[in-house]
């Protein structure tokens, strides 16, 4: 489940359950000359716990969700090797997706602006100059609704945000997309306030 086509390798990463348990790990397949390789569990500190929803920036760094801890983590890939796994240190949110340029991260989380609501919304974090992350910013009505928005992803060219919305009227669930210009506008507003 939750496949991700690498931005800089001929690989597809995905989450799979182990045969004997509900323990999830990250696996990958490689594109060969005329087919795909056999799937293999990746040898990485990432797989030290129950994990899913791996994605990658253009630099090759991996971002993913640790299900057991309900937090996001990342690891840098240097010379083909994975560095130590580190917590992302964001205020909240899981099933996050890093932008290709790694200057912002979108996540889904329970709506925090209205205590009476129980649905999830999509939020954005902007990377600060010192490498830390901004406070989460709700993407607003152009993306979020009174229903639950989840599983955000950014296209490889950085132009579009895709997401799911579920439990709409009549119990429908659908996929949606919107231009990432809404994120760029929020980014400009955010950094103007910070100056």
Structural description of this entry:
This protein is mainly beta and 195 residues long. The protein is built from 1 helix and 17 strands. The strands form 5 sheets. Strands 1-2-3-4 form a 4-stranded antiparallel beta sheet, with no helix packed on it. It has a 4-stranded antiparallel beta sheet with strand order 5-6-7-10, with no helix packed on it. It has a 4-stranded antiparallel beta sheet with strand order 11-12-13-14. A hairpin with a 7-residue loop joins β16 and β17. It is globular and about 45 Å long. The chain starts with a strand and ends with a helix. The mean pLDDT is 91.
What sort of overall outline do the alpha carbons produce when their principal axes are compared? Answer: globular
Order of strands across the main sheet: 1-2-3-4
Q: How many helix segments?
A: 1
Cα end-to-end separation = 42 Å
Helix content: under 10%
Low-confidence stretches: none
Report the portion of residues in β strands.
35-45%
- Class of secondary structure makeup: mainly beta
Pattern of helices and strands: EEEEEEEEEEEEEEEEEH
Major beta sheet, specifics?
A: 4 strands, antiparallel
**Computed Rg:** 17 Å
**What's the count of strands?**
17
Mean pLDDT equals 91
Write the layout of secondary structure elements.
Blueprint: E1 4-5, E2 11-17, E3 24-30, E4 40-41, E5 51-56, E6 62-66, E7 71-75, E8 77-78, E9 81-82, E10 86-87, E11 94-98, E12 104-110, E13 120-126, E14 137-138, E15 148-154, E16 160-166, E17 174-179, H1 181-194
């Amino acid at each position: 489940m939750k496949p991700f086509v690498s931005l800089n390798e001929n690989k597809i990463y995905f989450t799979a359950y182990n045969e004997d348990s509900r323990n999830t790990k990250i696996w990958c397949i490689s594109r060969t000359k005329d087919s795909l390789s056999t799937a293999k569990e990746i040898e990485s500190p990432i797989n030290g716990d129950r994990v899913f929803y791996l994605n990658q920036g253009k630099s090759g760094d991996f971002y993913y969700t640790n299900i057991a801890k309900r937090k996001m983590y990342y690891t840098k890939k240097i010379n083909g090797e994975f560095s130590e796994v580190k917590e992302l240190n964001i205020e909240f949110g899981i099933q996050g997706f890093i932008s290709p340029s790694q200057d912002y991260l979108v996540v889904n989380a329970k709506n925090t602006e209205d205590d009476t609501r129980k649905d999830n919304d999509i939020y954005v974090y902007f990377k600060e100059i010192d490498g830390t992350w901004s406070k989460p910013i709700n993407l607003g009505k152009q993306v979020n609704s009174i229903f639950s928005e989840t599983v955000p992803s950014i296209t490889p060219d950085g132009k579009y945000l895709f997401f799911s919305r579920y439990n709409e009227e009549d119990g429908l669930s659908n996929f949606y997309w919107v231009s990432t210009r809404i994120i760029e506008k929020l980014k400009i507003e955010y950094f103007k306030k910070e100056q």
